[in-house]
Predict the structure.
Amino acid sequence: VYLKTSYLSDEEIRQALLLPCHSIEEEVERLLKRYGPQASICVLPEGPQTIPYLEAARPLS
């Protein structure tokens, strides 16, 4: 998970087990080059106020 913020240092971001991102556009471009144009990318503009969830493809049992 990458985090773009002006409130935390890169070290503080890493201590939270996240990766610092200085440019969303550049990071998305880099990830698409790495994983291909069919890659799924999720951007949460209000990250701390958003709770993402994944729907299971099959029941978890």
